[in-house]
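As noted in the main text, all predictions were made from sequence alone. Below is one such record, for Tetrathionate reductase subunit B.
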Amino acid sequence: MPDAKPKKYGMVIDLRRCVGCMSCTISCKMENGIPLGFFRSWVNMAEKGKFPEVRRYFQPRLCNHCEKAPCVRVCPVKASYRREDGVVLIDRDRCIGCGYCVEACPYHARFINPNTKVAEKCDFCRERMEKGLPPACVHNCMGKARIFGDLNDPQSDIARLLAVNPARQLKVELGTMPHVYYIGLDEFLVMVKEGA
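Prediction:
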């Protein structure tokens, strides 16, 4: 029997199910104690069409936990790093708050926490993961639009969903190899201003 592939965590966001309730943003802020005005997870919104044929689009955003993460490459003190399971983390004890990683992230997913003066971003709720729990944004998504799991496990919910649905990653042309996938992503939303 061949050896199983090592774990590689990622997230799928099924935009067909997202209702724009913002529970992902709120639960992330509550779980991680994020200061007012800053976000680890947020939802871009845009409207398309002309009255009376107008539709609102939602696009939840977060760190893409890139395989070739620019934020990791530019960190002068190696505070940003990528674990073998694909999760990109920040060692808060090493971070000097220089902001290089914030500038290097093409997904605008990092910020300098004004209270701690170090870089911060989504870490897939590392503490919850260690207890076998999904990230807070996944757990609290009322539309079940967020699916988290091991991309290398063909029996995982995330792998099965990706196997039968066309999905897109953001900014693949940059070669970052992001581990966040979108199902039902409209090209219109890709062009919408990024950031919270």
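The chain has a mean pLDDT of 93. The helical segments are 23-32, 70-74, 100-104, 126-130, 136-139, 157-164, 187-190. These features were considered when defining construct boundaries for the mutagenesis experiments described in Section 2.9.
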